[in-house]
Amino acid sequence: MGEQEQLNRLVAFLHKSPTPFHAVSNMKSRLEEAGYQQLSEKASWQLQPGGQYFIIRNDASLVAWKMPKAKDLITSGFRMIGAHTDSPCLKVKPNPELHKHGYFQLGVEVYGGVLLGPWFDRDLSLAGRVSFQDEEGQLRQALIDFEKPIAVIPSLAIHLDREANSGRAINAQTFLPPILGQAGEKPDFRALLKQQIEREGAHVSQVLDYELSFYDTQPPGLVGLNDEFLTSARLDNLLSCFMGLEALLSSDLVEGQLLICTDHEEVGSMSASGAQGPLLDHLIERLLPDAENRARALAASMMISADNAHGIHPNFSDKHDANHGPLINQGPVIKLNANQRYATTDITSSMFRILAEQENVPVQEFVVRSDMACGSTIGPITSAEIGVKTLDIGVPQFAMHSIREMAGSQDVINTIKVLSRFYRAEQV
Question: Which residues, in sequence order, are CB contacts of 395 under 8 Å at separation 6+?
């Protein structure tokens, strides 16, 4: 498989996945093309050795796995890779219509730790899931994507705010409502959604509710004199979802292999479809109903939590510990924190170093400055919830939580190699 082909597939995936709902739908398509079978959590399962399956919860979280052929799960356990499908963004409020001075705007709510400044003066579109009644009165859902630019959040001219470059606080309530157009009276947003759903092929009696977010329409791209950088929205953390899926689909069917991509990480993961919810625990209980067998299998398992890391920024190098500033395109980053904000232990990090060495891939480390707060991932949550040994790693990137982020193209290729090796590991 060519490296350029892999990067092209990544760019296409990012472009087609403006929301977690779309990301899961696209992952589902690839899994089905590879012969994976979707299972309903409501149904009884008849799993076969060598079988390939996946489940989806709330359209925004997905777990895919392979059942081992030659060994049982009790002794071999699972090789797990975890990531999250959500990214910081601006979500549309339930009663969003604003009509001021002849302009039609939508009220938005900030989802997660958004870096707000880059959202101004971008060509924005709108996507997500809509719940509606069809003509027979049945409750249905549809994924929609306006695709074309339909909105913008214009900056205030510097002539009217001479202190703008000296540091201005952004008021999320008053500064952020995007402008969608001009109107003589306040439009009905749900009527616009009805038109969009019907334009995409469904018949709608009435739109009920929705989960919609704005996104930047500029497509992902390879940037730099030698295409060494990847720039895109939602690299945190659709990049890790993609790398985990690539590794799963390319790995040999030897051991139990599992990929979990959950929603709501950016707001704490505490939901039915988040890492702090029961999704993974429920799955493992169904695969191994006997408590002792389940405990033995988890003791033989390992998870790699993949979530991007902070690369050292040449203009802001003082924000890093000098000995732990990862460089873009110098290899995946092992993330460590003494206060358990990351789940890495010396054992799990050593295992990862061995796997990377087998693939001739360099490895870096990230430790936050001792005088700064540290973010976290699904790693500590999953490790605590199911008791599996866990490692936190990530591709180094710039502009985390911006509307457009930046990572290294070679880091993507190298990290997929190590994750693929992990899935093939005889022992973890």
Answer: 239, 240, 243, 308, 309, 332, 333, 407, 408, 411, 412, 415
For residue 1, pLDDT over 70 is answered with no
What is the predicted pLDDT for the residue at 253? Answer: 65
CB atoms within 10 A of CB 128: 24
In a 10 Å sphere around its CB, with 0-12 CB exposed, 13-18 middle and 19+ buried, how is residue 254 labelled?
Answer: middle
Distance, CA of 288 to CA of 302 (rounded, Å): 16
Interatomic CA distance for residues 351 and 305, integer angstroms: 14
CATH among 3.30.310.50, 3.40.640.10, 3.90.79.10, 3.40.630.10 for 3-87+233-424: 3.40.630.10
Average of per-residue pLDDT across 41-54 = 94
Instruction: Quote the percentage of the chain above a pLDDT of 70.
Output: 99
**pLDDT one-digit tens code per residue, 292-310:** 999 999 999 999 999 999 9
Domain 89-216 falls in which CATH fold? Aminopeptidase i, Domain 2 (2.30.250)
184-200 pLDDT, tens per residue? 999 999 999 999 999 88
Element (H, E) at 324: none
All CATH 2.30.250.10 domain ranges of the chain, comma separated, are 89-216
| Averaged pLDDT of the chain | 94
Give me the helices (H) in 144-272, please.
189-199, 235-250
Q: Which amino acid is at 305?
A: S
What are φ and ψ of residue 8, in 5° steps?
-65, -40
Nearest residue to 236 (alpha-carbon basis) of 171, 306, 184, 168: 306
